[in-house]
Amino acid sequence: MKHFKPNLIKTALIAGGVAFGSAPALAQQSDTDAVDETAVEVIEVSGIRGSLQRAQAIKMDNTSIVEALSAEDIGKLPDTSIAESLARLPGLAGERRNGRTSGLSVRGFNENYVGTTLNGRELLGMGDNRGVEFDLYPTEIVSNILVYKTPEAGLMTQGIGGTIDIQTVSPLTAKETFAINGSFEMNGEDSGNPDFDNNGHRISFNYVDQFADDTLGVALVVADMESPRQEKYFRGWGYAPANPDKAAEGVEVPEGTVILGGNDSFTRSAMLERTSIAGVIEYAPTDDLTIQFDALYIDFEENDVRRGVEEGGAEWGTSEYTITGVEDGLVTSGYYDGFHSVIRNDSRQQQAELTTFGLNVEYNINDNWTATLDVSMGEVDKTITDIESYSGVGRAGVDGRPLTPRSWTMTSTGAVYSDHPTLDGVDLTDPSLIQLAGPQAWGGSLAPVEQFQGVEGFGPDTAQDGFVNEPIFDETLDAVRLDIEGFVDWGMFSKFTAGVNYQEREKAKDNNGAFLTSPLWPSSESIPNPIGVADLSHIGVEGVVAYDSLALYRSGYYIETEAELFENGRIGDTYTITEDLLTAYAKLSIDTELRGIFITGNLGLQIIDVDQTGTGFNTTTGPTGFTAVTPISDGSSYHDLLPTLNLSFEVAENQFIRTAMGKVLSRPRMDDMRPNNTVSFTFNDQQIISENVANGPWSASSGNAQLRPLQANQFDIAYENYFADSGYVAVSFFYKDLTNWHVSGQTIGDFSESFIEGFHQTSGQTDINGDDVLDENDIVPPATFNGVVSFREDGLEGFVRGWEVQGSIPFDLFHKSLEGFGMFASATFLDGELDNGDAVPGLSDETYSLTAFYESNGFEVRVSGTKRDAFSTETRAVSLSLAQIQDAGVEQWDAQIGYDFSESGIEALYGLRVTLQGQNLTDEPTIRTNPGDARQITEFQQYGRNFLLGVNYTF
Q: What is the bridge-based pairing of β-strands 575-594 and 114-118?
C-alpha cells in the first residue's frame, strides 16, 4: 500500500493543475513544508474519484476537525444545489422545504446556529434570520466547501453547530477552463395547476484563464436556472376532543379520543428562477504582493400557486357530524353534514437580490512574515408577496347558500374525503356557481373600518375576501480585516497569527399586509377570467376552480385595508437590528514531535466587543379601535472571550488522533432581538370574566434587544486512518455543553392603560349574571387588568453529544477487477436536549448517508441516499410568521449515470460529457405530526420525482 504525507498530497494535486479555494484553509505553506516536486507523483484524476481524493487531502491536512467537499471539475458539484451536496457529509443533514433541500443542520443545529462564509467572509442569507438558504447558491461557483466542526481563533464567523466556508476558484493556480453546462429538468408529477408546467432548465458558463505571464488570473461564472416543483399538500387544523354522543350505532368513543377539526389542502406548483454571476480577478505583480477581487450577484425569484380548499370539520367547523370509526384514541372515519367551503387561490412571489464584493491584499513583508488586508461588503434585498384569495358559493351572510357535506377517512397521507352517505355534494369546479367573495365571516379585525359598517345583514367581518402579506427585508454587512502571520521558532510553536476584524451589520424588516375586499361588497361576482381546474384528487376531491390571484391583486381589483391599522402584531413585527462587532484574535500554530509522534494543531483566543441595537414599536389598541404605536429602541454592549485548542497526533503513518476544546457561540436570532411589546385582548366571554390571570383576556409578547449570544463549551476527539489516496475511515465523538440558550420567559403585566371602555368588554351573548336573560347587565368589563407578558430571555442550558462514523472505500483494494467501484458512507448518532425539555432545533437522533459509484473509461454510475430521523424545525404560519413544528424526517435516494466522451477515442467529441440524474426516486413525502401520535398528521407533502438530462462541454 502506498503511503504519503498530507502536504505531499496537496503538492501533487496542485502540480496536476487542480485549484484549491482561496480561503485560509489552504494558506501558503512555510518553506519548511516545501517538498521536491520532482519526487511527487502528479495525480491527474477527474470525476468523483478525483473529487473524493481532493476532499480527503484537505481533510487530512487540516489541524482542525473538518469535512471537505470538492467539485469534480471547476464549477461542477454532483448535485443541483450546495445544500444537496452538503447534506451528504458526515454530521450534516438536509431539510426539505417546498420540495428542495434548503435547510441544513450541522451536528444537530440548524442553519440559524451555523456560521456560513464565502472565501472566509460571513455570507448573508436570504431568509428571515441569519441562516443561509443553501439551495439559492449555485453549485457552479464552488471549488471547495470546508465544514469546520471545531473552532479556531482565525474563524471570524462561528456557530454552535460549526462553520461552513464556501470557496471559489483561485484563477492564478487553476487550470485554464472554458466550459458550458446545460441541462433539461422535468418533474415526474404532472402539474396540478393549469397555468404551470413541470419543465425547467439550467445553463452555465465557466471561464478561467491567466494573462501577463501568469501574473493576472480571471475567473467568471454565469449561471441561469428555471426549476419546477409540484406538490400535493394536506394540512390538518389540529385535533379536537371528540363528542361521544356523535358516535354511530355500535361505535365506542373512549374518553380522550380526538378528531380532526378541519383542513386546508391544496395542489402547489412552483417555478424557481435564479441568475447568478460570480467573478474573481487575481493579480500578483511581484512575488511578494497578491491582490484578489471577487464578486457575487444572485437574482432570485420564485413564483408558486397553492390552490385548494379550506374546510372546518367536526367540532371546529360543525357540530353536526357522525363518528363511524375509532382506533386507539383517534377518530379514523366519519362524516359531517356541511361547511361553507372556502376555495383558496393563493399565490406567492419571492424576489431577492444578493450582491457581495471582496478585496483581499496579501503582502510578504519578508521571508517569514505576511500581512493581509481584507475588505468586503454585502447586501440582500428580499420581498415576499403572499396573496390569499377566497371564493365559494357566496358571501358570508347570504341566505340559502349550499353547504359542502363530506365523509372522511384518516390515512397515512392525512384525511381522504368522499361523498356524504345521504346528502348531495357541491361542485366546486363550476365557475358559474362560484363567487369571488369570502364564504366565512373571518374579517373580525375590520370592525373599526367605517367603510364596512352600517349595511344590514353584512357586518365588517364579512368584508374579508382575501389577504396580502408583503414583508420586505433589507440587510447589509460590511467588514474590514487585517491579519499578520509569521513563522517563529518558539519551541513547539511554529507560526504566530494575529488580527483584527471590524464588522457592521444591519437587518430591517417592514412587515406589510392588507385585508382584501371585493369592490362589489357586500355583493359579489363570478370569478373574473377563470383559467381551469386545480386538481385535488390526492385528498379525494375532484378539484376547485382556478384563477390568477396575483394578477388580480396587481391589477388593483381589490379594496385594500392596511392590516397595521388594527393588527397590533403587524407593526410590532417591524424592526431594525444593528450590530457592530470588533474582534481581535491571536493564534499559535503547533508543530512538534513527542517520542516519535508528530503533533500539529493550534492554540488561540478571540476577544469580541459587541454593540447591538434594535428599534421597533410598542403596539396596543387605541380608543378608536385602531392600533396605537409607540417607537422604542433598546440594546446592549458586552464582551466575549473564546479560547480554542486543536491538536492532531500522527500516532502511526497516516493515522491521526485529533482532539479539540473550545468555547463557541452563535449570535442571537434577528427576530428574537426586536424590541417591541405587542398587546393582545381575547374577545372570549369566559376569559373576560375570569379573575385568573393565566386564563384572562390580556396578554402581550415582546422580543429582547439585549439578548446575549447562544454559547457552548465543546470537546471533540476523533480517530482518522488514511489507508489509500482515496480511502479512509474515521470515528469521532463530540460533546457540547450549552451554557446559554434562549427561552420564552413570562411575567405579569398591568394592562389598565390599554383598557378602552365600551370596547374591551363581554359580547352580551353570555348569561354573565345567571338570570337566564341576555341584557345590558351581561355586558361587563374585564375582571382583571393583569395579564401574562411573554418575552425571550437568556439562561437556558442543555447539551448535545454525538458519534460520527465515516468511511471512503475504493473497492480495488479488495481485487483489481473492482477498480472504478467505490463507496462513501457515514452515520451520525446524536443525543441532546434543553433543560426545559425542548428539542434542539435541527437535531435528529440518527442520520445516514451512502454514495456508491462506478467510474471507468468515461462511464459513471452513482447512487446516493440520505436518511434522517425526526427533528424540530419551523414553518410559515399565520401572516408568514415562523412556527415551531416537528418534522418526521425523510429518506431520499438519488442516482446519476453519465459518460465522458473524452474517453471514447472520438477526437471530435473530446470535452463532451452527458449525464442523466434522478432525484427523490422513491418519491419520499415530508410528514409532520402532533408529538406523541404519528397518526395525527398536521402536514403531508409529496413532491414527486425529479429528472435532469445534462450536457457539459469543455473546450
A: unpaired
Angle of the 47-61 helix axis to the 6-15 helix axis, nearest 10: 140
- Rounded CA separation 917/316 (Å): 46
Q: How confident is the model at residue 22 (pLDDT cuts 50, 70, 90)?
A: very low
Please list the residues that pair with 548 across neighbouring strands. Answer: none
Q: Within a 10 A sphere around the Cβ of 638, how many other Cβ atoms?
A: 12
Residues 141 and 71: their CA atoms lie apart, in Å, by 10
> Above pLDDT 70, what percent of the chain?
93
Give which of 838, 658, 797 is closest to 734, Cα–Cα.
658
Q: Which three cell numbers stand for residue 337?
A: 353534514
Report the 3 state secondary structure along 306-357: EEEEEEECECCCECCEEEEEEECCEEEEEEECCCCCEEEEEEEEEEEEEEEE
pLDDT tens digits, residue range 310-363?
A: 999 999 999 999 999 999 999 999 999 999 999 999 999 999 999 999 999 999
Are β-strands 262-286 and 289-312 bridged in parallel, bridged antiparallel, or unpaired? antiparallel
Helix/strand/coil for 878 = helix
- Cross-strand pairs, 280: 219, 294
Helix, strand, coil abundance in the chain, percent, nearest 5: 10, 55, 35
How many helices (H) and strands (E) are present in the chain, helices listed first? 6, 44
Q: Which DSSP string do the residues of 914-948 spell out, in sequence order?
A: EEEEEESTT---EEEEETTEEEEEEEEEE---EEE
Can you tell me whether residue 112 is helix, strand or coil? helix
Distances (CA, A) of 80 to 145, 303, 919: 15, 19, 10
Q: How far is CA 448 from CA 393, 460, 462, 623, 761, in A?
A: 27, 8, 13, 11, 15
> Position 800: which residue type?
V
State the cell numbers at 388: 390569499
Task: Give the whole-angstrom CA distance, residue 521 versus residue 398.
Answer: 12
Closest CA to 173 of 6, 31, 16, 363: 16
Q: Distance between alpha carbon 40 and the CA centroid of its chain, in Å?
A: 44
C-beta atoms surrounding 671 within 10 Å: 18
Contact (Cβ atoms closer than 8 angstroms) between residue 738 and residue 834: yes
Task: Quote the pLDDT of residue 772.
Answer: 83
Strand 493-517 relative to strand 532-536: parallel, antiparallel, unpaired? unpaired
Greatest alpha-carbon span in the chain: 103
Is residue 432's pLDDT more than 80?
A: yes
Angle at CA of residue 110, ends 90 and 603, nearest 5°: 65
Reply yes or no on whether the pLDDT at 881 is more than 60.
no
Q: What is the pLDDT of residue 682?
A: 85
CA distances from 713 to 150, 598, 736, 804 (A): 11, 27, 6, 19
Give the contacts of 144 (CB within 8 A, at least 6 positions apart): 20, 21, 25, 54, 55, 58, 68, 69, 70, 71, 167
Backbone angles phi, psi at 411, to 5 degrees: -130, 180
Where does residue 444 fall: left (phi above 0), alpha (psi -120 to 50 degrees), or beta otherwise?
alpha
Q: Please report, for residues 10, 72, 813, 819, 821, the alpha-carbon distance to residue 810 in angstroms, rounded to integers and kept in the order given.
A: 20, 17, 6, 8, 6
Which contiguous run of DSSP H or E holds residue 494?
strand 493-517
DSSP string, 670-685: TGGG---EEEEE---H
Alpha carbon distance 301, 296 (integer Å): 17
Q: pTM (2 decimals)?
A: 0.88
Average pLDDT, the chain: 90
